[in-house]
Write a structure and sequence with these properties.
Layout: H1 2-16, E1 38-41, E2 46-49, E3 52-57, E4 60-64, E5 72-73, E6 82-85, H2 98-103
Parallel strand pairs: 1-6
Antiparallel strand pairs: 2-3, 3-4, 4-5
Length: about 100
């Protein structure tokens, strides 16, 4: 009899720990498609492809369905191999005349 008094509450306690509730709608993990091998950015560090907005900042990529966010980190396996800048925004040729100035 005493054994039954111990087993019944213990069973009830263990069964309540096994309750599983479904996750709220929209909380599933979704990863954006990989970027192409070469991405050409304009004046702003945003890129749009396949319904996703991509944002490039400090050598990191983020993605979102909306340009206003929320932003998620893009897995490194989805990064492009090369990033190009349109409109001369990169640093190529920046120090071209420096050697001439130093010699004078």
């Amino acid at each position: 009899m005493y054994r039954m008094l111990i087993v019944a509450p213990l069973t009830a306690l263990l069964l309540t720990a096994c309750v599983v509730a479904p996750a709220p709608y929209g909380s599933g993990l979704v990863v954006a498609p990989a970027l192409p091998l070469i991405v050409e950015l304009g004046a702003e560090p945003y890129y749009y492809q396949g319904g996703y907005h991509y944002y490039y900042n400090n050598d990191r990529w983020s993605y979102s369905h909306s340009r206003s966010g929320p932003w998620m980190d893009l897995p490194r396996s989805h990064y492009p191999k090369e990033i190009r800048r349109r409109g001369g925004a990169d640093d190529r040729g920046r120090d071209q005349g420096r050697d001439r100035r130093e010699r004078n």
